[in-house]
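Data deposition worksheet. Section B asks for the primary sequence of the deposited chain exactly as it was used as input, without tags or linkers unless they were present during the calculation. Section C holds the resulting structure in token form. Section D is free text for depositor observations; keep each observation to a single sentence. Incomplete worksheets are returned to the depositor.
Section A, Depositor: J.P.
Section B:
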Amino acid sequence: MPTYHEITTTDLSTLATAAERWDGMAKEFHKQETAYGRDVHGISMGQTWTGLSADAANRRFDVTLKEFQNAQIEAKAVASLLRDAHTQFVDLRKKLEAARDEAIAKGMKVSDQGVVSYDTEKLSQGDRTALAHDPDYQESIRKSVSSWQQRIDQLVGDVDDADKGVEVAFKAVVIDSDINDGTLNGFNGKAQGDIEKYEADEARAIALRIDTGKTSAHDYQELQRLFHDNSGDKAFSQTLLDDLGARRTLKLANDLDSLAHYDDKKHGSQYLDIQKGLATTLATATRDPNSSFYKHFRADMQKAGTEEFKVDGLSPIPDEKVRGYQSLVTLMQQGHGYSGQFLEDTADDIRHAEESYTAEGHTESIWALRDNFSGNDRGWFANDPLDGVLGIMSDDPATSTEYLDPEHNDNLEYLLHGRDWDTVIDHYATPPGGTTTGPPVVVEDGDVRKGFGAALEAATTGGAPGAYHAVGEHTLPQARILQHTINTLYSADQAQELPKNLSTPLAHILTSYTPDTHGTYAESSSRYDIDWDSSGSVWNDKDGAHLAVGHQRLAAVMRGIADDPEAFGHLYGAEQQYSHHVLAGIPQDAGDKAIHDRIVDSSRAMGAYDGVRSDVIFDDRFKKTQWAADFNHGLGTSLSTALMFNPVSDLSPVGDLATKTVDVWAYESNKEHVAEANLAATQKNAETYDAGQHDVEHMVRAWANSRGHGIDSDYTQFFVHAGQDQYDFGRNHTLNTLRSDR
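Section C:
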């Protein structure tokens, strides 16, 4: 292994010089080929020498002439490999030197042997004293030194990986690969000048040995090195996958899964690291959808994707086999950096496979297996490959939006309403009066729609699932996807009892659209003041894209989210904060009408949210106290981070005072919710629901107090009463849409 000192001091120009010499050697071989062809090989081609001896000589002369030609090919390939090595080593040394310089700039010293230490000579006397007596300071220095040492060591390791790759290439380039060229150990007429292609050949050979069970520990170490060094290289990646083909690629992925999770768990991390390299290789190879490789590999995968494979140890059920696309997406989950086109094409191909399977008359999903694959121990296997690839797609919000935009395709409709999501064969039905096994009874897996929910969140917010989502920064396609989602769930009678695992992502999404839900419930403008059952619209303005749907449809989806009290707590907390920002944004010189209108809007919206919360009390499915506790946890989590979303530009927060005010108000509201939950869930309590009224009261009093008005002044009381009246309007408006038995 080359050392840090060797890497930084070796004269790499000798590689370029050697390459020039090898090019010169190729030219000399060309001269010899010309002379031999003229003075020797030409003799057997004339009319003066005929017969058996001439034929025999001619065959020998042909071989020799070919050797001169092959010698040129090999010499040129060696020259190319030397230049390739020179380029790699120069690039890697620059990265190492850059890291060293950066470390020095951060107060470190790096010795000639690559040992990192803290440079105390640059410290003032005061800093030295602090370093000598402050344990926390000492620990921070130790961590910093360790971090820089790891970075230096990693870069040295990268050079070692590249050096071994060069060794692989130089050993292979001189091997005569044509057994029919008339020589046993002649020159290599198929020599190549790309190090990565030889490393791909080495990786392919190891993969085939893994498939036959004839591997050594060194093989796995070498394959790990090959992927670490080359998985981001296009030539290596396309050469390897082209050589393996789709089927053998999947078999390699399956073999690595079996080793990592079942056969050799002791070295599981190594196998998973190799699989990560294979996944990155796949991402690199498929980056150009217009390449001939991409088209060929995709067509090959379309065939292998529906084939059945045995994965040792995956299932205790005898003869259980998985489909190729399940293995493909399991592999893809180990990598990143896939092109958007590859993700969309893979999703399209998986959908086509399942629709074709159904068209053939099968009643269960093509992905149905007699086992459950969810949770920490089992969820790594992508038994639902479409859901799995959507989860990967969620890392790319722009692609998620493009894939789910209902203006351009029916993918969203298919996923919301047209698809069979059952993938677990729970049991087989017994025909009436019969003893033979009937049709399979298939149910949903525990992690069903996790990927779809993540992709939906990314597609509608433009951000990573579960991350901070700013409001007022949406595009028309994003808003259109959400509008279509709400309308489809409502029309399919799935809104109030949402499909499994969609509650949390929908809560995150709607939190991002709080100004629109606020406007819908407040009916504050003609855009939002629409029919209860309207499918609504989307539009653009200076703050970005917006949407509106009928009050009834939006409330139904929120009621479905409320089955998950913590998720609904986030939604409720977002509305609390947004309502506060609406009031905080009222100009200091605003007249009473402007103030009244803002308070009415916020109170109506708060009432509508509370109408959803009230409806839970009517529902016997819940233990009310536990629901309220979980709701308050979600509410408290959302409010623990002040200003969890950006208000739109004209409603900027007024600073620390506003933040402190909303925190106090939220604390008081939470106490009301807990106390209320401990009361008997009577009809009277459900109809009164005092906590929501107090939410509005606290909100208005907090705002008035921030503007210098007493919390019990006539001025404040006037607006408190106006707000509470409109809270009742909003709450009853929502309850009327959710239950007809009131």
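Section D:
Residues 450 and 501 are 6 Å apart (CA to CA).
The longest strand covers residues 424-428.
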